[in-house]
């Protein structure tokens, strides 16, 4: 049985090219940075959880909620093949119980903040936005996209960003937690414009202050799908 199942919906992905050295101290044991065309990426991702179940059970008032995370991309070689995954710097959700479960059982770095979202269609333009409060500041990520979902091109930047199916968590210098996220290949909407209003220093710390003055290399909006998060593995390396 999966640990968690849900529908992930309307995933905004704002992607920044960063120097690889910035991320090395966050690398879990046994992984290495995964690059695309020689570039190292950090992504700011906002999306909706819908119909969430833990161990097959619905938790009242915890089935539908927002998440915004900052992540980067890694790979791990095992049994003759590469596993491609992500490492989360921080994941923000509005439900303290979700934070407790993720931090306790998956050793993630979740944080609980007041959050809201917007999803509306007008004149064939889809507006999707996620907001959260950090101290007294309101942070937001928003896109307008044309309401027509298309397949993702093979070997494209969008495919690289969206097609990572493992999560890796650094526990200490020798121990890593690994879990698999299963979902079909997503479709994407073409972006018309975007707006990002975030104090990266206050939300993610001084290591990521440079993102305050850096424009994203690309911004994507994925349609999303049903997903399944498998139980974690503890890797002692």
Q: What portion of residues belong to β-strands?
A: over 45%
Oligomer: single chain
* SS class: mainly beta
What is Rg? Answer: 17 Å
Tell me the span between the first and last alpha carbons. 27 Å
Helix percent band = under 10%
Largest sheet, in brief, is: 7 strands, mixed, barrel
Would you give an account of this structure?
The chain is mainly beta and 237 residues long. It contains 3 helices and 14 strands. Strands 1-3-4-5-10-11-13 form a 7-stranded mixed β-barrel. The longest helix has 10 residues. The radius of gyration is 17 Å and the shape is globular. The mean pLDDT is 94.
List key phrases describing it.
about 240 residues, mainly beta, 3 helices, 14 strands
Topology:
Blueprint: E1 4-18, E2 32-33, E3 40-54, E4 65-78, E5 81-93, H1 96-105, E6 110-112, E7 115-122, E8 125-134, E9 137-151, H2 157-162, E10 166-170, E11 175-182, E12 187-197, H3 200-204, E13 218-229, E14 233-236
Parallel strand pairs: 5-6, 5-10
Antiparallel strand pairs: 1-3, 1-13, 2-4, 3-4, 4-5, 7-8, 8-9, 9-12, 10-11, 11-13, 11-14, 12-13
Task: Report a brief summary of the structure.
It is built from 3 helices and 14 strands. Strands 1-3-4-5-10-11-13 form a 7-stranded mixed β-barrel.
């Amino acid at each position: 049985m999966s640990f968690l199942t849900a529908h992930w919906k309307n995933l905004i992905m704002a992607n920044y090219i960063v120097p690889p050295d910035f991320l090395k101290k966050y690398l879990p044991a046994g992984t290495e940075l995964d690059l695309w065309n020689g570039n190292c990426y950090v992504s700011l991702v906002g999306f909706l959880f819908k119909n969430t179940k833990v161990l097959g059970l619905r938790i009242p008032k915890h089935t539908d909620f927002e998440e915004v995370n900052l992540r980067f991309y890694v790979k791990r070689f095992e049994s003759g093949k590469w596993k491609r995954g992500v490492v989360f710097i921080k994941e923000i959700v509005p439900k303290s119980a979700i934070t407790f479960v993720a931090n306790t059982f998956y050793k993630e770095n979740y944080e609980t903040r007041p959050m809201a979202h917007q999803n509306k269609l007008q004149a064939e333009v889809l507006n999707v936005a996620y907001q959260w409060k950090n101290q007294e500041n309101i942070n937001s990520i928003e896109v307008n996209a044309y309401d027509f979902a298309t397949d993702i091109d093979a070997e494209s930047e969008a495919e690289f960003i969206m097609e990572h199916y493992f999560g890796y968590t650094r526990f200490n210098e020798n121990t890593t937690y690994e879990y698999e996220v299963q979902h079909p290949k997503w479709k994407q909407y073409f972006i018309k414009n975007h707006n990002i209003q975030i104090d990266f220093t206050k939300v993610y710390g001084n290591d990521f202050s440079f993102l305050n003055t850096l424009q994203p290399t690309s911004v994507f909006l994925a349609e999303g799908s049903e997903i399944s998060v498998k139980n974690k593995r503890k890797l002692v390396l």
